[in-house]
């Protein structure tokens, strides 16, 4: 499955490099997130691809929430309560 990421032109090069290392095509476009997002939507429509907003999407939010719960569970399981005082 082919993936692509449209990011604003001011995106730090380290983020661009790390994203590209995962195998996706990185396109730098626009002066802000709104311009990059609009360009991504246009590309998706033209190329018959699916647009997934990086944060304003119910499925993405649910995944982030699940990640937070998993982190909290792992963190709590790793605590050593012997040194805690009430």
TrEMBL record:
* One Gene Ontology MF term: L-serine ammonia-lyase activity
Q: Which processes are annotated in GO (biological process)?
A: isoleucine biosynthetic process; L-serine catabolic process; L-threonine catabolic process
Its needed co-factors are: pyridoxal 5'-phosphate
Which SUPFAM superfamilies does this one have?
Answer: Tryptophan synthase beta subunit-like PLP-dependent enzymes
Give the coiled coil ranges.
Answer: none
> Does Kinase count among this protein's keywords?
no
Query: One Pfam family from the UniProt entry?
Result: PALP
What EC number(s) are associated with this protein in UniProt? 4.3.1.19
Task: Identify the domain of life.
Answer: Bacteria
UniProt-listed InterPro entries: Ser/Thr_Dehydratase, TrpB-like_PALP, TrpB-like_PALP_sf
* Keywords attached to this entry: Lyase, Pyridoxal phosphate
Ranges of residues in domain Tryptophan synthase beta chain-like PALP: 6-81
- What's this protein's name? L-threonine dehydratase catabolic TdcB
What high-level taxonomic lineage is stated for the organism?
Answer: Bacteria, Pseudomonadati, Pseudomonadota, Alphaproteobacteria, Acetobacterales
Protein's gene: tdcB_2
């Amino acid at each position: 499955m082919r993936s692509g990421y449209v990011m604003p032109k001011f995106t730090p090069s380290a983020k661009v490099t790390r994203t590209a290392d995962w195998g996706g095509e990185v396109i730098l476009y626009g002066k802000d997130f709104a311009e990059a997002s609009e360009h991504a939507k246009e590309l998706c429509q033209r190329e018959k691809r699916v647009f997934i907003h990086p944060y304003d999407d119910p499925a993405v939010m649910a995944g982030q929430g699940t990640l937070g719960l998993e982190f909290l569970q792992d963190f709590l399981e790793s605590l050593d309560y012997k040194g805690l005082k009430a």
